[in-house]
Protein 1
Amino acid sequence: MSFRSDEDETRPLAPTLGLIALLLLAFVGLSAVTDPAPQKVTIAGEASSAP
């Protein structure tokens, strides 16, 4: 019975993580489309001010 309880606890997390991953992928994809030049992709966007 404990297995069932664990599943119920971790179940709502799966879709949330998937959504976050999808959003991240979409953001990176949009960034790549907006910047045709292949540059290092940094989460903080430090490479934006590259010479």
Protein 2
Amino acid sequence: MIKCLILGCVSAKDPTDGSGGVLFFEFPNDTDVRRKWCDSIEAFQGPLTEFTEVCERHFEPEALVENRYLKWDAVPTLFETTDFNGTKTLLEVINGCVEQDGSGQVRCRLQENDVPCCFSQERFESRALLRHICEAHVAFAEFVGLSGVKRTNRMISTCTNGRSKVAQLTKKVLNHVSIDEDGYRCRIEGSTCLYFQLKMFPNNFARHFRDMHPVKAFDNGYFDGFRREDICLKKKVKFIIGHSQCDYSVKIFNVEKLRRHFCEEHPTEAGQYRLFKTTQRLIRADSDQESLPLKYLQLVEANVVRTRNGIVRCRISNSDCRYKQRGFVPGSFYCHFSLHHPVEARAKGFFASEEHSEREPTPVPMETAEEFITSPSDDDLRLTTPSDDPSSYCRLCFSIAQPLRPIFAGPEDIDGGGLVELISNCTNIRLCARTDFPSSICYECTQKLDDIQRFRQLCETLDTVVRRQGRMKRDLSVESDGEPEVTPVADAPQVETIANSTDDGRQSVPEKRRNYTELSIRDQIYFKCTDCGFLSTSGENVKRHWVRFHTGRKKLAAKITCSVTGCSDFFFSPKTQKHHLEIVHGIRNKVNVKVPDRIKIDEAYVKLEESQYACRNCGKLYPTIPSVLEHFKQSHRWSKIYRKEKIEIAQESPVDNVCQAVVINGVSYFKCRDCEVLMVKKSDLAVHWLKQHGEGANGSH
């Protein structure tokens, strides 16, 4: 049954009833709006449970849309209009039950069994008065319609039966702790929590459950009676160490700040609770040693100084370190040296034994590499899985409070949708559906794995950029050297492969792949590339050519095939083709590759805006005229521009006199003769020319 949260409101609704009735609204998710709700209903709020909401009777009519939906910024404001017995409002009932005495205090006027009530207030608070009426004067509360209002945990300390409530809380807490010879330990979520108390403080355990294990705490009733504001907003936390209560408090739970406070202000209790050993790498979990070894104790003594006031200060470095202690605790100074002065501590021998223990371990045989080897320190950790069901906790971090998702879709799922490979690459943990199904992973671990994968991809990309930059510099050095000249041979002899004189018939396997072969042409040794027809008298030149053109590091130019019938060799420059023809085929100056120097500039390029020039045939853009002319020579050598014979041009139409066809990026355009306008249709360009450059145009040429 859903009930209204406002005190005195009797609205209720069955969740299974779909016939309508009074509308109820939950607290909003927005932080600012939720805070406004808490501030507005603070003086009229009843007990908060999972079945309490705010009904529609406490909102203005303008806050509802179509009398069904609530606006996102609406705040409950109507708390005094609810009628009791049809005649009196809530404040009228409260005002009729109190009176003000001569000292200015507000006293209750009601009586129980003809005995005056002793309840009083220094100032009028309707919320406290309502609770007093509902608890101390039950008959009157039922008469005016205030029955069903219960106490909250805030009134336990002011009630006469507060001790029974503490006993009930202690009994509840004992169900979720374990008792050993050292004290009380938290076991609300198994044996993974390290929270410990020397004596039983039930309120401290309850607060620990709410802060560190909220899901289990909510399921076991440790949030019962708390307001929504108390649950959502974090308050300051005070800690008790030993038997005396300290006024030190922190707004956000910080282990390092609290440890430092305990070590400085409560050194005796901190040493008893082993707080000095939490950050020492020297003292392990399986050690029962209570003090530092004599060697480290002497080192600590040599690096501190005592003042007349009994204060011990750090002097391990030349810098002015402000760390000090009122009571000398060597273990605390050892931790300080290790954390804040690691260079000086290592130089003075504080890490001598650790460096010896952190050496590279002995290799493990392959047959036992996959077996889990249990060491004595593993037993002392006393860690177990949070639950026997693998799907109820995260496989990587043992978390049960975050949303979980299954790793495998079923026992037959091999890769888990790529998640298994991602976990293996990032953590070196190889999961198998046959043994690990139905394991789960939490949302936070999934995000961490994605971040690691993206970081690895980014590093690989940047490494590729660096290596490519280095290759470009090496290619520039190769280009500066140029391809070597080869000596032409008059005739084309038979090509024979040189046999190794020391070959004994056995096939030898080379250590590395050779990217050239040795050829003998007219008693002259040449080296030929294995992937194209490049020839040279030096093998190093062929290697550099192969790295430049056949490793994918540079964009290849257009291939030039040998013009001799039956020869399948190809090249990447006319010069290499010419050398091939002269050496292999004995052909000299048979191929006319000469390009006329004089070029018709108007037919080679088109000038565009922003000082760019486009090739007339292919549309490529170049910043200067010489660069586009050089491109035209190399790429369009067989164009009609270079033919010496005259080409008969068909009779042109009148429109052809005012435009010319150009190709830009593979698309054909028509360019105006008198300006730089480009159009797709010739008719549109003719209209443009008549309007802008014709006889009737303004300012015509």
Protein 3
Amino acid sequence: MEGRSALRAIPDPPCAHVTGAVYRAIVLGPGCDVAGSGHTGGVPGEAAGRIRDWEVAGGVVLRGDQLLLVRNRRRNDSVEWSTPGGVVDPGETMLEALGREVQEETGIQVHLWEGPLYEITVDFTDLGWRLRVETHLAVDWNGEIVLEDPDGIVEHADFYHPDECEVRLVQSPRWVREPLMEWCRRRPDQKLTYRYQVTGTEIDGLAVTRL
């Protein structure tokens, strides 16, 4: 959710990335240590007979009809866009983590959240990972954009109209792109839920199915 490098909640994570829309997605680099598990890219996590669960918070910050997006630079030098957010650290609540991540990545301070707008579950069946994302709406915020991402992954942030967002999100994972754009188009009163299954163990060969 659909990546970030070196997230604090993941032990020894040189190549594990989690994006938030909406969420931040998990992206693997070739030969990297998968979330500090001792497994390298291309080795199924299920082989160890366990599933690792990650909780991720994503934030929708609006300025008029414009949405705040961040541009994330990956280890392979590719770029993906998402809303700000990240992994919930041990001892944090979802909203505490979200406020921290948004401020670190963009300089924006959020004083009140509403939601969740939608929830996403992504099952990485061959890697033995499960990603759960909650995305909330900032209803009281202030500040100007200042890039302070301690992980050095967010290299740009700005507000964009929905059609501009859609263009930027084309290369983002489905579980980041689809929920966010559906919410932007519909603005439903009730929480939306999404579930995806991801198979494969190599970043270039992942197959994503919406359930």
Protein 4
Amino acid sequence: PSAVSDIITAFGEFSVSGNYVIGAIIFSILVLVNLLVVTNGSTRVTEVRARFALDAMPGKQMAIDADLNSGLIDDKEAKKRRAALSQEADFYGAMDGASKFVKGDAIASIIITLINIIGGFLVGVFQRDMSLSFSASTFTILTIGDGLVGQIPALIIATATGIVATRTTQNEEEDFASKLIT
């Protein structure tokens, strides 16, 4: 249909390339890799990191208090360390929530894809008077194209979540680009 974005149509036609089964397989593989590998991995990493950060907090807090009481650090340094400790716990807690959001996004995209293909087929047949085969081919291409257009950014976001969750540094001077390549 002419009302559909050229990007969605191009993605769909490129991935299908005349064979709807291959297009559906390519799309399914991308969705499964995003959901089962990247998103689930990122979610698990952030859950574990958040749990470890929270579990270690009392011990780290007691170490700060012990250093302060023994005179190894002054009150200003103790406040600085407590703030850093609080910031670390907040970061991992936020990453845990963000990874759950990314996982929900991946699951929602699968549901939306199923709704698009069924709804598109029904609209084509009953409202646009298309034949069954033409409606199926048209809306399969459009659904796969729309799914790919949505899955590529979702895969990038899920990957970035995993990178941020697994690549942290104590040296704040280290730049993000060097974190990505190590």
